[in-house]
Each structure stands twice: as structure tokens, then as C-alpha cells.
Amino acid sequence: MDDNNKIIDKIEKLISLSGSSNENEARAAMMKAQELMAKYEIKREQLNEAQETERPVIGFTSSPYREEWIHMVSAVIADNFRCRSISICRNSSSKTFRIRFYGYEEDAEICINIFNYAIKVIRKKFITLRAIYAEVKREFKESEKMNYVIGFCHGLEKNFDEQKKQSQSFALALVTPKAVDDFVRSLPGLEIQSSPKNIMRNREAALLQQTGYVDGKTFQNAGDAARLEN
Questions:
Q1: What is the pLDDT of residue 8?
Q2: Which of 1, 22, 100, 204 is most buried (most C-beta within 10 Å)?
């Protein structure tokens, strides 16, 4: 096996690990796979090349949610992991919905793993922010959550953009395949989620968005430095 094939084999194994039930292990494996793809300019199409024929587009579905900011997070992550995300309403009376990520199997699996982890990180930060607001007799409401998440998503986008600048091949490897876009567009009555836009900014909103931005920009590598060296 030549050096290039050894690298491809390692990336394929890391992608398999990204489906681990251990979220930290899954995220670290995904990051290492992306790091190697960028370093050696390996395209996704080169993975499993020998076995590849016509690849099916599949969907992974999230737990139920109610919060509108969930849509923003899913859109940013899907856009940067070769997938598309849609919202599926299952129960109109309870106003809950689920997010479904469509893509090739390994892409969609990575996507939902990173999405689930991001939601946990954001909710944990909400607990901290709610405590800070409580100290000054303030309520941490939905508008405050939205401002934080808008900042987080913009920071996450910046994080992804900086990775893509490392290598043109790496950037191209993360473009959502046309087959995925075509598949999702063919689904009746489903709307692809869009990336976030800023809402009205006062001083407090700007501070929350900046806090979220910093967290989003450092999201991927947080706590992973040692793991990525393994």
C-alpha cells in the first residue's frame, strides 16, 4: 500500500469513528479526518473509491425541538459538512419539529453528530448566562438566546471559512454534492434551512452576539488538541 492509500485508509477509519456514541471521540475523529484531508489535499470522492458506484442519499433525524434557533445551527453545520438540513413538523399541537440531515451516509452521520454536540454546548452556555442574568434580577429570555446563537453561528461559519482557506482542494471537498441538492429539492413541501442573519442590535444584543461569536469560532478545536495528536 503506497503512502497516499495509507492516508486515505486512515481517513476512512476516522470517518467510521465519527459515528461513535462517545461524542468527544466522534468529534475528535471527524476533526482529525478533516485535518488530514486538508494537509494531503484528499477529496471526499477519493474515499472508498474502489467500491463506489451510485451512492444513495440518506437522512438522519434529530430529537424533537421547539426552539427556533435550532434551525440556524442545523443550517450552518449542514452547509459545511456536504449536507442539507430540513425541518419536519411531527406534532402541530405541541409545536415540535425535528431536523433531518440529508447527504451521503458518512457525511450525514458526521453532520448529526456535530449538530447534537453543538446543541449541548449551546444549552450549557445558556445555563451560565441564565445564572449571570439572575444575579442582576433579569430573565434570560428567548430573544437573548437568539442573539447568542446568531453570534455562535457566525463564529462557526468563520471557523469553517478559515479551515477552507488552508487548501482549495479541501474547500472543494466540503461542497455539498449536486446529487444531495437534487434529492432534497425533489422532496415535496420541504424547505431547506438557511443560515442566520443579524437581528436588531442594541448594546446588550451586541454583547451576547459577540459572546456567541467567540464560542462558535473556537467550537471545533475546544478540548481536542491532545486528541488530534493521537
A1: 74
A2: 100
Q: What pLDDT was estimated at residue 119?
A: 95
Q: Is the CA virtual torsion 179, 183, 184, 186 positive or negative?
A: positive
Could you give the 3-state DSSP secondary structure of residue 95?
coil
Do the Cβ atoms of 149 and 118 come closer than 8 Å? no
Under a CB-based contact definition with an 8 Å cutoff, are residues 89 and 97 in contact?
yes
Q: How far apart are CA 71 and CA 45, in angstroms?
A: 28
What is the H or E stretch that residue 38 is in?
helix 23-40
Whether the Cβ atoms of residue 196 and residue 68 lie closer than 8 Å to each other = no
pLDDT in tens, 28-66: 777 777 777 776 666 666 665 444 446 789 999 999 999
Question: What pTM does this model have?
Answer: 0.70
The answer to whether the beta carbons of residues 159 and 216 sit under 8 Å apart is yes
Q: How remote is the C-alpha of 90 from its chain's centroid? A: 23
Q: Band the pLDDT of 170: cuts 50, 70, 90.
A: low
Cell numbers that stand for 31 in this block: 476533526
Residue type, 120: K
As a whole number of angstroms, the distance between CA 32 and CA 229 comes to 8
* Rounded average pLDDT over 107-126: 92
Beta bridge partners of 85: 101
